[in-house]
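Fill in residues.
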């Protein structure tokens, strides 16, 4: 019976999940994901160049043509990626609105300051 209680205590109180903390963004993971994206584009363009066959294509079988196709494909992919990342905002408009609203409310609180005791008594007694 005591063992069950001790195990229950451990499960409920000692093994709890950490409380989430607010973060500005995803941090270093953003740079890691961008790096992996670039590596993926380069690898895919090299795979395209390696598997390119001259059967029925306008290219002859020279390695120069294959490297030029890989180079062009890579640059087109990077151009599309940068255009799309420029057009799509990092912070959605509704989140940006809520952040501005929260900042405005915080500024309003700091401008007004804490209520004085005389203001509290006037608010509670409307006849005065």
């Amino acid at each position: 019976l005591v063992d069950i209680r001790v195990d229950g205590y451990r499960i409920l109180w000692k093994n709890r999940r950490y409380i989430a903390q607010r973060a500005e963004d995803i941090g270093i993971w953003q740079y890691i994901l961008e790096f992996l994206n670039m590596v993926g584009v380069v690898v895919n363009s090299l795979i395209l160049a390696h598997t390119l066959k001259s059967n029925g294509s306008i290219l002859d079988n020279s390695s120069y043509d294959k490297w030029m196709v890989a180079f062009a494909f890579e640059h087109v992919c990077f151009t599309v990626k940068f255009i799309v990342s420029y057009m799509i905002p990092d912070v959605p408009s509704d989140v940006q609105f809520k952040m501005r609203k929260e900042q405005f409310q915080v500024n309003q609180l700091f401008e007004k300051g804490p209520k004085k005791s005389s203001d509290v008594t006037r608010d509670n007694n409307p006849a005065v």
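The CA atoms of residues 37 and 81 lie 9 Å apart.
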